[in-house]
Amino acid sequence: IMADYPEKAAKNRFKGGIKISKGQAQQQPTETDTTGYIFSNKNRSRLMQVEETRFTYNVLEPYESWEIHFAEFWKYWELYKEKFQPNNIISIATKFTNRIKLPFPSGDLDEYFTCMPPVPKTLPQVLQTFFMQIQVPIQASEKNVAITQTIEPIKDNVLPFILDITVQESFDIGKDFDYIKSDFEEMRGIKNKVFEDCITEKTRQLFK
User: How many CA atoms lie within 13 A of 88 on its CB side?
Assistant: First the structure.
């Protein structure tokens, strides 16, 4: 691991409290507990978060293909599995955060996205800030899709629009860990369909 991910940082959990006795409040000493480690490559574009009960692989720019990133994830998941020998998997998830750069002024955001929140007609039809999240269960496959939308401050005549799509599944599959390979592929397919349903042709033109 250290050859490809030479940077290492501890993940710490802090505990503290206040004790009240006879009407007097006393702050209790803060305890620090290391829950795991974060390994990163030299330019911090690839991160692995390793804990005893959790394994997370994060990909930042520059991006390559899903196949390349998933192969890397699976390689180190196998090492994690060998090291910690988990008895079960209770949840897996994929999270795709899209930062879409819109020209500013961009006009009506409904021209770019299909599920924008409505603004009461008595107010100017302009959004200064907004945050919206919806969660939808897919009952047939026991998966859950969370769609989060927000905007970042305008800079250099660009309005960054954040479209985050998380697909998660909770289950009990015992030690049949190879099953999750096909499940991740299914989750990726769900994400792709949701993404296409969230954007318009005008947004697609921005990617060309």
Answer: 7
Terminal-residue alpha carbon distance, the chain: 37
- Report how far apart, in Å, the C-alpha atoms of 94 and of each of 30, 112, 140 are: 34, 24, 18
Question: What does the alpha-carbon distance between residue 16 and residue 192 come to, in Å, rounded to a whole number?
Answer: 43
pLDDT tens, residue by residue, 191-201: 999 999 999 99
pTM (global) more than 0.90: no
DSSP summary character for residue 113: B
CA angle 162/46/91 to nearest 5° reads 70
- Helix, strand or coil for residue 7? strand
Q: Can you tell me the distance from the alpha carbon of 116 to that of 202, in angstroms, rounded to the nearest whole number? A: 15
Provide CB contacts within 8 A for 19, sequence distance 6+: 25, 26, 27, 28
Q: How many CA atoms lie within 13 A of 24 on its CB side?
A: 4
Give the H or E element holding residue 162. Answer: strand 158-170
Beta strands 24-40 and 7-21: pairing type?
A: antiparallel
Q: Residue 92: its pLDDT value, please?
A: 93
Rg (C-alpha) for the chain, rounded Å, is 22
Q: Which long-range contacts (CB under 8 A, 24 or more apart) does 43-47 make?
A: 44/7, 46/4, 46/5, 46/72
**What tokens appear for 134 in the block?**
């919806």
User: Residues 110, 169: contact at Cβ < 8 Å?
Assistant: no
